[in-house]
Amino acid sequence: MMELSLKQFVPSEVCLKCDGCCRYKEADSIWRPKLGISDQESLADRITGNDALDPQGYVQTIQSCGKNFCQFLNGADNTCGVYAKRPFECSLYPFILSQTPEGVKVYVHLSCPYVQDHLPRADFDAHVAYLKEFFRRTEIKEFLSRNKSMFHDYSPYAPELLHLFDLSFL
């Protein structure tokens, strides 16, 4: 798989202290990562031969103590068991791509506590500018075109999202 080298907005030390991501109210939550072809190829050793993905390509959850967790989450230390090869959606979060009837849009998920603390601020605006440049790269456009199956329509969750820009090439 191509190295995407996506710069993170939320610092790792903040993520490791948060208990938001990778946990879901429902086992079939729409917020679970959806793997594109490239993600599936990259994680083939972890998803082949088991029920890692549902038929739509979403990562299956594991239930524990009445909660649903990403199967790759290590609950003991809040780390990701596939961090080096984590799905593109996970690398991009708290920013998300949403397939809408009008096209693919880039949003930020307002439920992320770090976003709540950094919006609007210069570092947030700088990261949005970085993402615009990132998505203009030819290899990223090609990657996204090959992995359209990972896009989901998050428009039913519009109150939780802030629209940032559109990806007109998709």
Low-confidence stretches: none
Structural class: alpha+beta
Enumerate how many helices there are, as a single number: 7
What form results from the Cα inertia axes? globular
Helix fraction bin = 25-40%
> In what order do the strands lie side by side in the largest sheet?
1-3-2
Which oligomeric form is depicted? single chain
Portion in strands: 15-25%
- Please summarize the sheet with the most strands: 3 strands, antiparallel
Q: For the record, give the distance between the C-alpha atoms at the N and C termini, rounded to a whole number.
A: 20 Å
Mean pLDDT: 89
Any idea what the radius of gyration is?
16 Å
- The succession of helices and strands, N to C, reads HEHHEEEEHEEHHHE
Number of structural units classed as domains: 1
Number of extended strands? 8
Please give a quick description of this structure.
With 170 residues, the protein is an alpha+beta fold. The protein has helices spanning 12-15, 37-42, 44-47, 88-92, 113-118, 122-136, 138-146, and strands at 23-24, 61-64, 67-70, 73-74, 79-80, 95-100, 103-109, 161-167. It has one domain (12-165).
